[in-house]
Amino acid sequence: MSASATAAAGRVGSGPGSGAAPVIEIEAVRTRFGSQVVHDGVDLRIGRGELVALIGGSGSGKSVLLREIIGLQRPSGGRVRLLGSDVWSASAAQLTALRRRIGVMFQDGALFSSLTVAGNVTTPMIEHGGIPRAFMAALVELRLSMAGLPGSAGAMRPSELSGGMRKRAAIARALALEPEVLFLDEPTAGLDPITARAFDALLASLCRDLGITVLIVTHDLDTLLSIAQRVVVLGKGRVIADGPLAEVTAVDDPWIRAYFSGRRMLAAEESSDGA
Question: Of 9, 40, 139, 162, which has fewest CB within 10 angstroms of its CB?
Answer without folding.
Answer: 162
